[in-house]
Amino acid sequence: MKGTDKEKEDFTFDESKCIIRELAAELSKVVQSSQISNTSLLTRVNEDGSCQEERQDFILQWAEELKHSSQTEQTPAGEITRHRRSDDPPDQQKPDKEQKLREATKALSEWAWRLKDMEQDSVCLGEDVCSVLQDLERQWKRGKLPNMLPVMDFLIWSILQEQQEGSIVKHWLRNRQRSRSRVTLNRVPDSIWNLILKASVEITLDEKTANPNLLLSADRKRVKMATIIEDVFDPRDGYSPRSHTYDGWCCVLAKEGFTSGRHYWEVRVWGKAEWRIGVVRESAPRNGFANLNTKAGYWNLRLQLGELMALSAPVIKLNQSPPSRLGVFLDIEEGQVSFYDAEERCHIYTFNVNFDNFGKIYPVFGTIETDRELVIL
Length: 377
Prior knowledge:
By secondary structure, the protein is α+β, with helices and mostly antiparallel strands.
């Protein structure tokens, strides 16, 4: 006799809880407790407030990570999805979520058993990793960390990346900006945020590219829409269209363009109901009202009627409140344009881009409001 849907749900709930607790216990054992109070931090997974969907996402994500890890290449734990013959029944060729979860749970459990073979305190974390974990503990104590899954996510990733050259924290930042998993860190820890801030650059607006309806401040740090009163003021008086000037959308570029490196800047958007901010390739269209999206060479966020969205093709609506201060992090080598709520230090969205042969990449700003400026900080 088959169980009810409620019984199946409870079983999945308990099973996911059990494997995560088992994994937390093994991580606490192998990581040197003298470096950080990670033991007490991870044992709090027993009090974890994560929901069922978050735990399931965590298990699926880490089963996939282990599948590609060099430490699990020769083990059954890496075989997350078995190979299927072409004559298998159609319903067996594509496993449903429940089957994937069971396979992923088995893989994660087997990796936890492998940790049992490691000696106690056998993993020595680097200073940068310890710094992140210490900050996460502070977040937990202040009630800013909703559950323990981000701690486990960062710790597992750090252990598996031990052999990589360079800072593990830098590798984590680049990797997790690409991830849209709900279990990765939301609020950015101090040491990682400091890495981003080290890339800060001075940005000023280029009046030669500005739509003639925009008003720029004398220091070229502020921009808003001009108030147009017919027969009194016409910002287009004496204006002649030029290929490098926006004559449709109310946008303006920065004077500074970049061909390499990492660059970060912030824009105050507090109280505004409409803006578009991001970067654009040098040769992207500026005339008329072409779609300013990723296909055209624009990687922007837009706030429109209070709704935040990523201007990809198609548009992706972002289910979160708009920031009052937006941080833009351009990493040309890694091919990323990332956006942050700079006050809350939360990651909003990342575009992954191949910038080869795009020429210079310029910051771009757009607004149609006459009463409140965009302010480059």
